[in-house]
């Protein structure tokens, strides 16, 4: 996987009050998740540049990582640079990414992003969070993913799994991803943001599922106020 450049991290919002007890519990949760899922990582594969990870992330909206991973080897062979994506006929891109769903919107987002990257950033995705989040097709989740995964920085990646598990574990009461991100930034030391995010996502996929979480076999059940109550 690529690691290019130093990434700036988003400034912390201090509007949320988190107790020392919650921070201490979060540290224990993280230790347990590290032990349970030593392989936790971003599960989008086959990218070799930050821009390719951004494309994969756009494709993963409302789609499984597995399906995206089944397409990206061929896609990244065909479209080798942001300039290739920028110059391709929109209909051709739509056709190539059709299996991921919402292919018209996704093709438009990818092509807009590619054109900005070519025209304003000499064909290289910027590493800075505040710049990334202003780019077409890049929301906070993807900007954090890029900072955390492609640029070797720290990011809180709030997807549907991280949101659900964070609420069940009592680290947030919010539904809004940006507010959840703010709560988690207050709860977890910055140096652990990335590993904590990957741990929460994989735990949500494998154990703390939306329906029927497996509390009986959960590695953090002793630390969870929702254990056996979902
Ligand atoms: S105890 Fe249950 S609700 Fe709590 S994190 Fe584990 S699986 Fe999720």
Task: Name the descriptors.
single chain; 230 residues; mainly alpha; Endonuclease Iii, domain 2; Endonuclease III, domain 1; 2 domains; 11 helices; 53% helix; elongated; disordered N terminus; binds iron/sulfur cluster
Provide structural commentary.
This protein is elongated. The protein has helices spanning 20-36, 50-59, 65-78, 82-87, 90-97, 103-120, 129-132, 140-150, 160-168, 177-187, 193-206. Mean pLDDT is 93; it is low at 1-16. The chain is 53% helix and 0% strand. The structure holds iron/sulfur cluster.
Q: What can be said about this structure in brief?
A:
The chain has eleven helices and no strands. It is mostly helical and 230 residues long.
List the helices and strands and how they pair.
Elements: H1 20-36, H2 50-59, H3 65-78, H4 82-87, H5 90-97, H6 103-120, H7 129-132, H8 140-150, H9 160-168, H10 177-187, H11 193-206
Helix pairs in contact: 2-6, 2-8, 5-6, 9-11
The structure holds iron/sulfur cluster.
Q: Report the count of strand segments.
A: 0
Through-space gap between termini: 37 Å
Predict the CATH topology of the largest domain. Answer: Endonuclease Iii, domain 2
Helices and strands, in order, run as HHHHHHHHHHH
* Average pLDDT rating: 93
The percent range for strand residues is under 5%
Q: Which ligands does the model contain, each kind named once?
A: iron/sulfur cluster
The CATH homologous superfamily of the largest domain is named Helix-hairpin-Helix base-excision DNA repair enzymes (C-terminal)
List low-confidence stretches. Answer: 1-16
Question: How many domains?
Answer: 2
Treating each run of at least 4 consecutive H or I residues as one helix, how many helices? Answer: 11
CATH C-level name of the largest domain: Mainly Alpha
Helix and strand content put the structural class at mainly alpha
CATH architecture of the largest domain: Orthogonal Bundle
* 3D shape: elongated
Summarize the amount of helix as a percent range: 40-55%
**How would a textbook summarize the main sheet?**
none
